[in-house]
Specification:
13 helices, globular, single chain, D-Maltodextrin-Binding Protein, domain 2, alpha/beta
Length: 387
């Protein structure tokens, strides 16, 4: 069955890769103004969008307006309706492309998204565990009190994936529900919970690290193929990642074998003009040195940090750029073709499903859609993943 589980290592691209003459020959063509959505104004994703906008203004005269959004709906709705060109999104962009979780809703369904570029930096995404517990690996979480954040699909999927790495499910831990992400860390510090999902560099993680309980990051053996297969069966967007920045003393001298996925993920609709998509990826690579130090995590846009066989298809113009640089391979094209075929199938399945007699109740609608989705994907030889 064709699925989205990919090789366990990120695409390895040489540092300082020289561009071909063909790539250098085509000029950057960008509109005079662009609008993006991003995370809130205190986020690294917003800071990166502003830094890139500054580069585009200085180098090409393109003014970028960045609209902060407090949640996935407020970030992705303007993209869906055409009010913005791009979204500097999180992993909800993948859920949107798949039409699952919050997107398994009458107002949404699968979205025709394409990746422009991503940032993978030095931090990781992990379960933060109280440091006074003997938890060295995810399997050690059995019987521990693990936070579940109501209404936050991305965090809960991350937790579920980490448990799967250790051969566990929610049934093997004590699930403790919280109304918000910050509250779960307050509970760990207070001794009411033991673990919650986060990035390794967030303020809540730093607060836990400085508390009497301290912090620990479970290690993920990069060579344990069975464990990675279990994890990616739940959340195929995770990749092995050696984390070199994080609370509790994680550094280049004290790294942790863990996992990550890109943040932000800069996506557009598939109908974004080719000149704009090509101009943006070329501008980002040609001018990397001018913005890479201007926001936390901006160094993650380097060419060698791009995973060219990830889980959302690239915009066609971005593929053309990578072909011109000489890094695009036949295997990458086969993967791209598979992702586009999968997305087209999902879009067609949604159109057929919603044209029929669908339930009025949202829960019943979601269940019926997920069944139709799984059947269509399975019949075409794809792994439904979310069932």
């Amino acid at each position: 069955m064709r699925g989205l589980t990919r090789p366990l290592l990120l695409a390895a691209l040489p540092l300082g890769l020289a561009l071909s003459d063909a790539a250098l020959a085509k000029d950057v063509e960008l509109p005079n103004t662009m609008a993006w959505t991003a995370y809130g104004t205190n986020s690294s994703g917003y800071a990166q969008a502003v830094a890139i906008g500054g580069m585009l203004q200085n180098q090409y005269g393109t003014a970028v307006r960045v609209l902060p959004g407090d949640n996935d709906v407020s970030r992705m709705t303007p993209l869906k309706t055409g009010r913005v060109d791009l979204c500097a999104c999180g992993i909800a962009s993948y859920y949107g492309a798949e039409g699952v979780l919050m997107f398994a809703h009458p107002d949404w369904g699968p979205q025709p998204l394409r990746v422009l570029t991503t940032s993978t930096a030095s931090f990781g995404l992990s379960l933060a565990v109280a440091g006074d517990l003997d938890v060295k690996a995810p399997a050690d979480l059995a019987g521990k009190r693990v936070a579940y954040i109501r209404g936050d699909d991305a965090l809960n999927k991350g937790t579920e994936a980490y448990l799967a790495f250790g051969g566990l499910t929610w049934d093997d831990v004590e699930r403790v529900d919280y109304p918000g992400y910050g509250r779960s860390f307050d509970a760990i510090i207070a001794g009411e919970a033991d673990a919650s999902f986060t990035t390794t560099v967030t303020p809540p993680a730093q607060q836990l690290a400085s508390s009497p309980r301290g912090i620990n990051w479970p290690e993920l053996d990069p060579d344990d193929e069975a464990a990675w297969q279990r994890m990616q069966a739940i959340a195929p967007y995770f990749r092995p990642h050696q984390v070199t920045a994080g609370a509790g003393g994680v550094s280049a001298d004290n790294p942790v074998d863990s996992a990550s996925y890109p943040y932000p993920i800069i996506v557009a609709n598939s109908d974004l003009k080719g000149d704009t998509a090509y101009g943006l990826i070329k501008a980002l690579q040609d001018n990397y040195d001018t913005y890479k130090d201007n926001a936390p995590g901006a160094a993650g846009y380097a060419l060698e940090n791009q995973d060219l066989t990830w889980v959302i298809p690239f915009h066609d113009a971005v593929v053309n750029y990578y072909k011109e640089t000489g890094v695009w391979t036949e295997a990458m094209q086969a993967h791209q073709d598979m992702l586009v075929e999968r997305q087209n199938l999902l879009l067609a399945t949604w159109e057929t499903f919603t044209a029929g007699d669908v339930p009025d109740d949202e829960d019943a609608f979601r269940e019926a859609w997920m069944q139709a989705r799984a059947t269509a994907l399975r019949d075409a030889g794809f792994d439904p993943i979310f069932e």
